[in-house]
Amino acid sequence: MRVLVIGGGPGGLYTALLIKRRNPEAHVTVVDRNRPDDTFGWGVVLSDLTVANLRAADPTSAGPISAALHHWDDIEVHFGGQTIRSGGHGFSGIGRHRMLAILQQRCRDLGVQLFHERELSAAALDRAVADDGIDLIVAADGINSAVRNQFAATYRPEVDVRRCRYVWLGTRRQFDAFTFAFAETPSGWFQAHAYQFAADTSTFIVETPWEVWERVGLGEMSAKESVAFCEHLFEFILQGAPLHSNAAHLRGSAQWLRFPRVTCAEWVHWLPANDRQIPVVLLGDAAHTAHFSIGSGTKLAMEDAIALDAQLANHAGDVRTALAGYQAERSVEVLKLQNAARNSTEWFEHVDRYALLAPEQFAYSLLTRSQRISHEDLRVRDAKYVEAFERWFAEKSGLTLAPRAAPPPAIFTPFRARTVTLANRIVVSPMAQYTAANDGMPTDWHFVHLGARATGGAGLVMTEMTCVSPEARITPWCTGLWNDAHRDAWARIVRFVHEYSTAKIGLQLGHSGGKGATKKMWEGVDQPLPSGEWPVMSASESQYIPGVSQIARAMTEADMDRVTAEFVRATRLGLEAGFDWLELHSAHGYLLSSFLSPLTNRRGDAYGGDLAARARFPLRVFAAMRTEWPPHLPMSVRISAHDWADGGNTADDAVEVARLFRAAGADLIDVSAGQVVNHERPVFGRMWMTPFADRIRQEACIATIAVGAITDADQANGIIASGRADLVAIGRPHLVNPAWTLSEAARWGYAGATWPDQYLPGKAQLERLLARERAAAGVTAVAAGPPPGELT
Ligand SMILES: Cc1cc2nc3c(=O)[nH]c(=O)nc-3n(C[C@H](O)[C@H](O)[C@H](O)COP(=O)(O)OP(=O)(O)OC[C@H]3O[C@@H](n4cnc5c(N)ncnc54)[C@H](O)[C@@H]3O)c2cc1C
Ligand SMILES: Cc1cc2nc3c(=O)[nH]c(=O)nc-3n(C[C@H](O)[C@H](O)[C@H](O)COP(=O)(O)O)c2cc1C
Q1: Is any atom of ligand 2 closer than 6 Å to the C-beta of 709?
Q2: What is the pTM of this model?
Q3: CB within 8 A of 234, min separation 6: which ones?
Q4: 728 close to ligand 2 (CB < 6 Angstrom)
């Protein structure tokens, strides 16, 4: 077997030595355009887990690699004049130069042929294939892979050049923790990622958004000047130690790169050669990249090599199957890391967004930025840090704790809006039940359904979308609030909640608009009624499901006056019914939402056009309700923060919409997404809409409710503790378990939740069972995130 490896970085060298080790008779060659001791960059980070993988794959090279590792456990965040430290993360640093020297030596010892200062052009590749009888080409030629570009039609690469510019520097300053430092200039924020990788050397990467970089004038500076700028800016952690560049020959601007996020649809190209086809397989940065803020590029490249070698061994003589297996296995792993890396990259691209947080919360947000390290993962890593943080958070939320009392997890802290204080941060998300009597009257179903969820421990129980008129209903079985009989039925439910639970109860008011007159959810979501339908209207003439839905007519100004009055009437009736909280439903493509989106609002009058004009009618309705609803009670607004369709609203628009509602007197934005147009292409995942709640909270400076695939208290704690939202709404899990809040409290070992007296024996039994289960499994904590060192 003859193998040609293009690129002598960690990925290429490791592939070569693994293949040669397993097949001593194989002819393995590595070519690299650089000299053997040339290297960009300084040190790289490896997790403890990656080191264990290397030990299993090739103990001989793992020995000197392990010996050269500089290990540390802590992460330190320098922000706003404070230094915050958390432990248990477990990383090692190694000089890239040292790592390459070890791998090169191991290659030589095994008989791999190394050729340096040899650039492989496209012509050279053809020649190698034709003349040398190569069986396999491994393209490990790095982030700007020429091979990837040459066969782009097969690999179909996507390269997303990110917002920040960064420079990779080194310093003799020794850091005893992975150090993140943040420095503000009049032009914007800079951050440093620093870690020690040898007895006397540390990597020091400085990063800033490109706009800030330009405003500061770094593009015009020489390399020396830009290093001096960084030294001055980060003097507070460098403490006089100079910074060094190992690319000093480059102009200042050329040293500052923008990180490209690379993905490839295919990883194998088959190159015709005489009567054969030679596979050219991508590996490492050539195939994919993961932002350096999660320190995983070298790990991914070396683990690619391990997988490729294992697949070739498992399918000896069948290279096609081996390479298909390699791509299938690695592309899944890479995708997981790239998703985490995307969150991390975006966090560092928007430091200005988080800079308003208190240093304690800023640091917590940084530690959990990838959304893969949860609150309980942090507790497993450093229980003292988490306890101190929870104490800080609880006191900030208004609790006074005795010095020795254990602080409650973030979701069990109170939240105050105007004069209403919620006992905790969990909301029963509004969920239509399609079980009203035919005239919009709430039934015993609603009494039991909402009552059970109130006694189940949530801080706030929200009604389903309650409609302001018969025509405002989604289905004939949706609840309404347009007459005194409705008011009295709702008042009975409100009285129960107030008398028998600690929960507050909110009323969600809405109008279905063009999505009205449809069937019950379980008979066909958004499908038109077979009979008994009523005419529907929307911002503009439209049809939600093309060829299926009823065609909605465009609203007139007289319609707007009437609908506004209906919302005001429902507000007054809601107040009389005793509700604590009012939410305006302006999401999901219903009437008010249809005004906000440019995809559904094509009006030429004052209510269509730019965002301010499109928001005019929803704001008018909100303002009229706010006047009717007393100033001491809170109001939230539910919006769709993204339309998930070309030309539709995006998170940028959502921030602006939130600002407009805040100015009109909204206290919170309940941040949902989508359902505005039928051809939407949403991107689902765990906590998938939380990033919108986060953005709106930081940028529009208004409290938010996060919702969407938040399924356990650990996730909810992370969201509240990091300041991504102020409340967490739980929908479908509450359909399964009315006592979701109380059972999650027991599951995560929090005894302080208030259970109804009637249910206390159930609490005691549940806690005992869960404690026994934990003891049987031999665990004291319930976290299940990545092992320490895998991700920060
Ligand atoms: C600022 C920064 C910090 C980083 N920090 C970390 C970290 O902490 N931890 C971590 O794991 N990773 C880190 N990385 C990423 C890491 O450096 C890469 O992911 C890793 O080096 C990828 O290995 P590779 O072998 O795929 O590619 P590379 O290391 O880039 O090697 C590619 C090789 O191919 C050679 N080559 C290219 N074209 C040709 C050609 N036509 N002919 C011959 N030779 C060619 C190049 O000279 C190079 O030696 C960081 C990256 C950056 C930019
Ligand atoms: C059966 C059902 C009915 C819903 N009805 C409403 C509603 O009336 N008003 C609303 O704003 N959202 C409604 N939603 C959306 C939920 O409030 C919530 O945003 C969504 O289910 C995502 O949260 P989850 O992943 O926790 O379920 C409904 C969802 C479900 C499953």
Answers
A1: yes
A2: 0.91
A3: 181, 183, 190, 192, 204, 206
A4: no
